[in-house]
Amino acid sequence: MEKTALLYEGKAKKIWNTEDETLLISEFKDDLTAFNGEKKSSEEGKGALNNKISTELFKLLNNKGIPTHFVKMLDDNHMLHKKANVILIEVIVRNIATGSLSRNLGIENGKVLPFTLVEFDYKNDALGDPKLNDQHCLILELVNNSDELDYIRYMARKINNILQKFYADKELTLVDFKLEFGRDLDGNIILIDELSPDNFRLWDATTGESMDKDRFRQGLGGLKVAYEEVLNRILGTK
Predict the structure, then answer these.
(1) How far apart are the two ends of the chain, measured CA to CA in Å?
(2) What is the pTM of this model?
(3) Tens-place pLDDT, residues 45-63
(4) CB 71 within 8 A of CB 179
(5) Residue 96: left (phi > 0), alpha (psi -120 to 50), or beta?
């Protein structure tokens, strides 16, 4: 499968059309951004690591009955996937308080939440990705009805349950993560985008060390080494 015209370029990926109108190719970039694009850098090999990690996690979820856009990994930096219309809601799933949740609500950093929290952000860079409630989603016509929001929440929690156990077996703690959903060409809501340490907070289960993009956000260094370690644990090679 070959790339044809560039459809879209975002912070972390380029999306390409293919000769098949039902399929697209994601090209994973080495670029790094944080704080709504205010902090920028690049790490050689980061895109390939995200592609490989996403591939393994999409395969896991597909095998568990989660509908996703994933078809296959083409090479180190390219993934083939189904075409889907993006639902402009970033779904944030939180198991442990940290980051903006601690800053905004004063919840102690590292506190295990009494239940899995699912939040919605508006996928809109110009507005700074503001928080959404259900009524906002309906007023903005991001979904057709409340049942679709309930389904997205249900799928987010189901994905969380699968990945929490999976990562625990790899001695990693799934702290929080971002998901995106879209509609396939038949109108079904499916999981899209990527499943990588760019979008996941992962802590080493023993040391509590960050194994994700917080290493870049906080200026800790060692981002590529951490991503490689995550991939090695997922593959069972370490």
Answers:
(1) 33
(2) 0.95
(3) 999 999 999 999 999 999 9
(4) no
(5) beta
Query: Confidence class of residue 36 from pLDDT cuts 50, 70 and 90?
Result: confident
- Whole-angstrom distance, CA of residue 84 vs CA of residue 62: 16
- In whole angstroms, how far apart are CA 17 and each of 22, 61, 234? 9, 25, 30
Q: Where are the alpha helices (DSSP H) in the chain?
A: 46-63, 99-105, 134-139, 146-169, 214-217, 223-235
Query: CA nearest 170: which of 50, 56, 45?
Result: 56
| Phi-psi domain of 65 (left: phi exceeds 0; alpha: psi -120 through 50; beta: other) | left
Rounded distance between C-alpha atoms, residue 225 and residue 238, angstroms: 13
User: Of 181, 211, 204, which Cα lies nearest the Cα of 118?
Assistant: 181
Centroid of chain to Cα 55? 12
Report the C-alpha gap between 123 and 112 in whole angstroms: 27
Rg of the Cα atoms in the chain: 17
Positive or negative: CA dihedral 139, 103, 197, 62? negative
Give the per-residue pLDDT at 38.
78
Q: Which helix (H) or strand (E) holds 37?
A: none
Contact 123, 129 (CB under 8 A): yes
Residues, the chain, total? 238
**Alpha carbon 1 to chain centroid distance?**
25
